[in-house]
Specification:
Strand order of the largest sheet: 5-4-3-6
Order of helices and strands: EEHHHHHHHHHHHEEEHEHH
Number of strands: 6
Strand content: 5-15%
Distance between the termini: 34 Å
Number of helices: 14
Oligomer: single chain
Length: about 375
């Protein structure tokens, strides 16, 4: 709420904090599966930097114009001579004039255009890791017609992507200014002396300066595009992250295929082992059987429907869970029946059933009391 002194009025300004939420804060803590990435690719969604495409196209196009500069200039002279020779004729609307224009135009533009198209295709092939065709983005969707101002402002103003794009644009403007300033300052003496030379030397000198500015700017843009691609790839993988519930649903959907089932089981095991230290460290308490079982539990009443099992294990895995809990000052409470029941009946990422709430409430109350005393 903000007070405006001039009017004495108070107005409430609401900003949705979810605009600033990351994937982890939204509950999507797991890396995307191969299936989800494959489906995204089939829909035409891959990490891609438009800056890299633009930089490659700009660099190769400028180089082609520089290398073909003499040839292009000779063709321009030929065009002028052709029309000057015909300017005294009375039949100016002869179809040959228009045909000649199109012939010369295509002759000069086609080589540069082909190089630009090839550069664009090559840049996309490099980023997409091969040919990628999908009609999914072309399908009409009514939701795309409805303006989403909240999402637009979130992406452009209240996100890392928006800030990064602003900084990137500023850097590009500064780069062009600095390159042009350095090139012009270095040739300032020769530039001033062009008033005393003929038209052709002046055109050659100005064309050389313009080529330098364009080539240097294109090379620097290509350097800037590399971190942009890395950022786009990181953001794409962040957007593809899955919640534990999504991982479980995907597993249930595909568990009929033995090959996929074995691959998913292996993937989930690796995922659980990889994320177990972080999940245990974020837990509120570890409920343990002294020798066999350990279950890490976390509860946040603002974001969770109920207490959730973050990690569990038996024997050596249980000992590892307790070791991680001690290293991160997570309380360990021994309760043999509860630890055994939670290990057997509740999977990782699931909400604990209500019939265990009473026993769990006593444990959590003790833990919260201990933390307040500390």
């Amino acid at each position: 709420m903000k007070t405006f002194p001039a009017t004495g009025c108070e107005q409430k300004i609401w900003i949705d904090l979810q605009w600033f939420a990351s994937a982890e804060e939204e509950g999507r803590t797991e890396e995307p599966s191969e299936l989800k990435l494959r489906k995204a690719r089939e829909e035409g969604r891959v990490p891609k930097s438009s800056e890299l495409n633009s930089a490659i196209v700009m660099l190769l196009t400028v180089l082609s114009v520089v290398l073909l500069g003499t040839w292009l200039f000779d063709n321009c002279i030929d065009v002028l001579l052709f029309y000057f020779q015909l300017c005294t004729q009375t039949e100016l609307y002869d179809g040959k004039l228009a045909a000649a224009f199109y012939v010369y135009f295509i002759k000069m533009v086609l080589p540069v255009a082909l190089i630009s198209v090839i550069a664009a295709i090559a840049a996309n092939l490099v980023q997409n890791k091969g040919f990628l065709y999908s009609s999914k983005p072309l399908e009409p969707k009514f939701s795309k017609v409805i303006p989403k101002f909240g999402e637009y402002f979130r992406k452009t103003l209240f996100s890392f992507e928006g800030a990064f794009n602003v900084v990137k644009s500023l850097v590009k403007v500064i780069v062009i200014f600095c390159v042009a300033f350095v090139v012009i300052k270095g040739d300032l003496h020769q530039l001033l002396s062009l008033m005393n030379v003929g038209l052709w030397p002046a055109l050659v000198h100005i064309g050389t300066m313009a080529a330098k500015i364009l080539i240097f700017s294109a090379v620097i843009f290509l350097v800037i595009a590399v971190p942009d691609y890395l950022v786009q790839k990181k953001q794409f993988m962040e957007s593809m992250k899955m919640s534990k519930q999504e991982v479980k649903e995907e597993y249930k959907t595909l568990e009929g295929d033995p090959f996929i089932k074995s691959r998913l089981r292996q993937y989930m095991q690796e995922m659980l082992v990889r994320n177990m230290p972080a999940d245990v460290a974020k837990s509120d308490v570890v409920i343990a059987n002294p020798t066999h079982y350990a279950v890490a539990v976390r509860y946040d009443k603002q974001t969770m429907q109920g207490p959730m099992v973050m990690a569990k294990g038996a024997d050596s895995v249980a000992q590892n869970i307790k070791r991680i809990a001690k290293e991160n000052n997570v309380p360990i409470v021994e309760n043999k029946p509860l630890a055994r029941a939670l290990y057997a009946e509740v999977e990782i990422g699931d909400i604990i059933p209500e019939n265990y709430y009473q026993a769990l409430a006593v444990i959590l109350a003790k833990v919260y009391t201990m933390k307040k005393k500390l």
